[in-house]
Structure formats: structure tokens, C-alpha cells
Design goal:
Length: 129
């Protein structure tokens, strides 16, 4: 079993106060292609976005509102959220939040990162929660 070491990023995205991700490559046979551990400050929020891969989050500490496809859910420690490829979502930290996330293999256009379907609709939804 390989040991995958993590590293802390010096310049994480603005909504993240601490970000860890792997420095070692994941095995080619792994269904997990990326992972991370993020800490968000109270009141911080991601943008409304989607990915070209499936994504899972496990909430370790804190409480958050998760919005996906216009519906909002309250989540806390021990909860897990799954967003399939192309499902728009965002996380808003109601308290200091610590989450771990996993991404599956890239699908479709195979683009990495936060993708946006409709920037105007995303802005409306970002302001609504």
C-alpha cells in the first residue's frame, strides 16, 4: 500500500484559510485522482461551480450550508456530500470549517478546477445563501 504524503499550500484560494493536498502521485489504479483537506473561516464561501469529475466531501469540524442545483442543506461533523460530474455546488462556512474532499477521474472535457456554467446565475445564487 503506497503512502501518499500531503503538503500545505502557501497560496490557497481566497475562501480557504489552510489547504493540504498530495505531493506524491496517486496510484494509476486508484479511483481517487485528487484529494485535499481544507479549512475555511467562519463566513467564507466557495464560488458556485462544478467539476468535470465526481466529488465527495467529508465534514470533519464545523457547520456549513451546502448549495447544489439551487437546494441548500445544513451539514456538520461526520456528514458526507457527493456531487456528481457537472453538478453545480458551493459551500458556505457558518462556523470555522474543516473538510476533506476527494475527486474521481476527470470525465467529459476533462478540465481541472472550478468550472462555471452560467456566471450570472452563479452570482445570484452566491448572494442568496
Amino acid at each position: 500500500m503506497p503512502h501518499i504524503q500531503g503538503k500545505e499550500h502557501n497560496n490557497p484560494p481566497a475562501f480557504v484559510t489552510k489547504k493540504l493536498s498530495p505531493i506524491d502521485p496517486l496510484p494509476d489504479s486508484s479511483l481517487i485522482r485528487e484529494y485535499g483537506v481544507d479549512t475555511l473561516a467562519e463566513g467564507a464561501a466557495t464560488d458556485y461551480h462544478y467539476h468535470d469529475c465526481d466529488e465527495w466531501w467529508i465534514f470533519i469540524e464545523g457547520v456549513a450550508d451546502v448549495t447544489e442545483s439551487g437546494r441548500t442543506y445544513r451539514v456538520g461533523p461526520g456528514d458526507m456530500v457527493y456531487t456528481p460530474t457537472g453538478q453545480e455546488h458551493k459551500i458556505e462556512a457558518l462556523t470555522q470549517l474543516k473538510i476533506t474532499w476527494f475527486e474521481g477521474p476527470l470525465q467529459g472535457k476533462k478540465r481541472k478546477g472550478h468550472l462555471h456554467k452560467n456566471p450570472e446565475e452563479s452570482k445570484k445564487l452566491e448572494g442568496s445563501s
